[in-house]
């Protein structure tokens, strides 16, 4: 071990990895710059402990920054050590976990430090979509290091001492830390959507262990399976009552009710996360109109797509597609959020979500659990944009818009001339619902593969993914899309 063996950097590694599994790499490396009296500075391990170990027996590579050495600042050799870990992880096909506590660039090393940062960015870019990248922030993560965090697939943050920022709160015109701490975990979770989970140090490390246990080691690994201890034919009793909170519905469907939600506090009307079905990791996207905690209703949302929700879901689907994780979608959406802040970005955001679904080559199963109207439904993993299997619960509505609203447009002149407009609207709406806006109507046209009992959702979805296990389809030859 390096001279920094007893610092928080090494203690975090020991707490994260399986007991006695960590092997340090580059323990004797120190800063080699001699400018500004650097030769007289003690820089054990150059401020970062690097190496490899196991989590649940699975190989991972890890680096942990040591704030006791020049504030954990990144210099030439510091960055070189992290890049070396990335190089080893790419060769072996194993995740990289970064434990950040960094004062930023080391000013004494100037362009050498800048070059090191650039090479770290390059290593992360080359690793993106090949191996999972996880970052946990325990102290300061500012400036260029925040960009490095943004390149990770998942970000965890200590909620008291963790600070994540590109510009310090006090450096933003009209702002100061006491007014709005833009570097706090709360802000980065709720406002920016950059952080997936926040908590104390113990909770953060435990969440990372849980995440690693369900993710593939790399984009070619199919060993993220576990033995299923749950009944494959188990009925999801009372799941109909969970149409509002899709997170509860997903936990009922999953093996042993496991659901690991990502970015829960950001755009909560769109739920994203991982479940297990027959021991296989499945990525899930679902519309949410209600949020319950400990049986108590905490919030209600429109059944509408927001720009933030679309961005959140698109990023998640892209990750699942890169690592061959099948995608399950639960649909309950009426349209797009009609707010000025959302309207500024909704067209582009919805386009990206539509593209993410259409472009994903992994098995895709969609279940319409309540309402699915207009192009917002198309965006949510419909048969039209490439879903392999689409189910609907009895009573689900699928169509252009709500029947009553459609009738008001179609029969506008008759309604205005009618002596009993309400009765006419009711009559025509029932007819429209039967002919054009029901699950049965969609199924007759092949847009829904089957109408299933809600309680049978688990067994039917498991069977669909089992059937799709060997899915393979040709795509146009191109470098990449541009949406």
TrEMBL record:
Pfam families assigned to the protein according to its UniProt record, in alphabetical order: Carboxyl_trans (PF01039)
UniProt KW Nucleotide-binding keyword: no
InterPro entries referenced in this protein's UniProt entry, alphabetically: AccD/PCCB (IPR051047), AcCoA_carboxyl_beta (IPR034733), ClpP/crotonase-like_dom_sf (IPR029045), COA_CT_C (IPR011763), COA_CT_N (IPR011762)
Top-rank lineage group of the source organism: Bacteria
Taxonomic lineage from the root: Bacteria, Bacillati, Bacillota, Clostridia, Eubacteriales
Protein's UniProt name: Carboxyl transferase
Domain CoA carboxyltransferase N-terminal: start-end pairs: 1-227
SUPFAM superfamilies (alphabetical): ClpP/crotonase
Domain CoA carboxyltransferase C-terminal: 231-467
Record carries keyword Glycoprotein: no
Gene3D superfamilies, per database record: 2-enoyl-CoA Hydratase, Chain A, domain 1 (3.90.226.10)
GO molecular function: propionyl-CoA carboxylase activity; transferase activity
GO cellular component: acetyl-CoA carboxylase complex
Keywords (A to Z) from UniProt: Transferase
